[in-house]
UniProtKB/TrEMBL annotation:
Belongs to the MIP/aquaporin (TC 1.A.8) family. SUPFAM superfamilies: Aquaporin-like (SSF81338). It comes from Actinomadura soli. Keywords: Membrane, Transmembrane, Transmembrane helix, Transport. Gene3D superfamilies: Glycerol uptake facilitator protein. One of its GO terms (cellular component) is membrane. This is Porin. The lineage of its organism: Bacteria, Bacillati, Actinomycetota, Actinomycetes, Streptosporangiales.
Length: 217
């Protein structure tokens, strides 16, 4: 239960920060988002593995460091936290009418690719800095994870919305930033990116193949 509550708290602060900065049109939103993810990773990493992202949880599951039962509970905590945080952010900022991102045609393909690529990068970084046997006691994992999200948000945030996270995407839809009818685009791209990250990690780190041992990353 400690792990599930930790996942809820970390995901809440991530999505709340995304919502407040994006709804307020803060110019340095990617830095704020990357920073809050970094500190929440440091805060909860020793408890739950600090996934705060269903795509990362999927990558850790396929990598063999979490059980299915825990993964399902993580997904539930993350998605619920995303919706609650979105409602709170919408109430705090109260932006009125919000422009909804509803990609179609060629843009749909660019959103799929952009989201998949940077979710792959994020999950790949998490697996390498937080689950690899080569880095058992490192102190840089939070920085690496947070800056990956910041880099992705700066690079393609204007194209795809920069979710890289199904919980963030669900929160964005709750806030009116993403069209509910197109939410499948982010869910598909982000989960595919997480799965590809696990495949790449295991291919490059065969010594890390092991049965699930713990719920933490």
């Amino acid at each position: 239960m400690r792990s599930y509550v930790t996942e809820f708290i970390g995901t809440f602060f991530l999505v709340f920060t995304v919502g407040c900065t994006v709804l307020a049109k803060a110019p340095f939103a990617p830095l704020a988002i990357g920073a809050v993810l970094m500190v929440m990773v440091y805060a909860g990493g020793h408890v739950s593995g600090a996934h705060y992202n269903p795509a990362v949880t999927l990558a850790v599951l396929l990598r063999g460091r979490i059980h299915w039962t825990d993964a399902v509970a993580y997904w539930a905590a993350q998605l619920i936290a995303g919706i609650v945080a979105a409602l709170a952010a919408r109430y705090v900022v109260d932006p009125g009418t919000v422009a909804e991102l509803s990609p179609s045609g060629r843009v749909l393909g660019t959103v799929l690719l952009a989201e998949a690529v940077f979710t792959l990068a994020l999950a790949y970084v998490v697996l390498n800095v937080a689950t690899s046997r080569d880095h058992p006691d490192n102190s840089f994992y939070g920085l690496a994870i947070g800056f990956t999200v910041a880099a992705g948000a700066f690079a393609v945030g204007g194209i795809s919305g920069g979710a890289f996270n199904p919980a963030v995407a669900t929160g964005a839809a709750t806030m009116g930033l993403f069209a509910w009818t197109k939410l499948w685009i982010w869910l598909l791209a982000d989960l595919a990116g997480g799965a590809l990250a696990a495949v790449a990690f295991l291919a490059l780190n065969p010594e890390d193949r092991a049965p699930a041992e713990t719920s933490a990353a």
